[in-house]
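Checklist before submission:
- one chain only
- standard amino acids only
- sequence pasted in full

Submission:
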Amino acid sequence: MKNRKWFLALLLLVSSIIIPPYPAGVSAAEVYYANVEGVINPVVAEFIRDSIDRSAAARAEAFVIQLDTPGGLDLSMRDIVKHIFSSDVPVVVYVAPSGSRAASAGVFITYASNIAAMAPGTNIGSAHPVAMGGEKMDETMMKKVENDAVAYIKSIAAKRKRNADWAEKAVRESVNITAEEALRLNVINLTAENRDDLIKKLDGRKVELAAGDKVLNTKGAKVVEVEMNMRARVLNAISNPNVAYILMMIGILGLFFELSNPGVVLPGVIGAICLVLAFYAFQTLSVNYAGLLLIALAVIFFIVEVKVVSYGLLTLAGIVSLVLGSLMLFNSPAPFMRLSVWVILPAVVLMAAFVVGAMYYAVVFHRRKPVSGSEGLVGEVGRAAGDIKAGAEGKVFVDGEYWNAVSDEDIKDGERVTVSEVRGLHLKVSKKRPPE
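Returned file contents:
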């Protein structure tokens, strides 16, 4: 029995040496793959940084960023570029699927990658810098920003041995080219129909890393999908200007309702949470503070309108201020950084309707007849509890109680009376007459 155990152990050892762990021609490598779609912002930059670190920790053969972006923030783009340059894992940027683009900040990220690829039917370019948040730059400042961007992309092109002349044109002249033209002009390294075609074409390519050169071995590699976690998805979603604006309006409505009706609690809590999320998004969107102040002024007008009778003047001023502030809030040359008018109009109409409705019900409640206290007895109908002589005091039964009452006319016992006035604990009554 003992000899049999030793024989099995020796057999296993020999088998592990002779028989390879994977069949011939199959790679044990992994390729990490992330889909980045939309504006380049701090959330996307954090996601790409973490994904690169995760790929490096797993000793992945490569990390692929499938990119489709209209551009984004300069600081976020530079953060991504720096992390790509210092990466221990080869970074591949693949502009896909067909119909996608790598514009503005996407050009810089594509140029910074170890291997740049595009799918047929995609385009790259239009990297001219624009001012975010509605700031107006004079010609000198614009020239400085443009020259800085040109120098930056040319340095990236030099490091990756890509076409620096075209990169300069993309920044200065906002030129745009197709995938086929990009391959011919040495802007990218290859074109690929789809992900499988890309993985196949990456095999055997040599890349330069911070730790030294590496030859990719992606044949038969396992593709590991990398996705944003729930936190990153939420933060990325609210970084959209339209979503941030809607959150702000919900927050304003919630706080307005809470201030108008203290003690309700729930609208105030929801409003506060929405405002915090909106202000988080604002720091990633470089808002125009003049627009933000106009919106705050509109809120003040609406609140004061409920407390002060201005015959609608403050409401009208609030609506005008809200519209102007909304239009100015994200006044950027970049379309993806501007508010949609189809978001502004419903929000303004809803806010105005809410305030007008609150004013209407405030007036209705103010004019409503009291239902308790001494004022609530005026107009009540009762019966005379004995004869009441004009100018003399008698008794009446009103609202379940007996009251001392006086009248300017004679009232007989049992006749129906109407309370016309309350004087301390005495009532002034008159005969109830049938309606005309």
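Reviewer check: Residues 14-27 have pLDDT under 50 and may be disordered.
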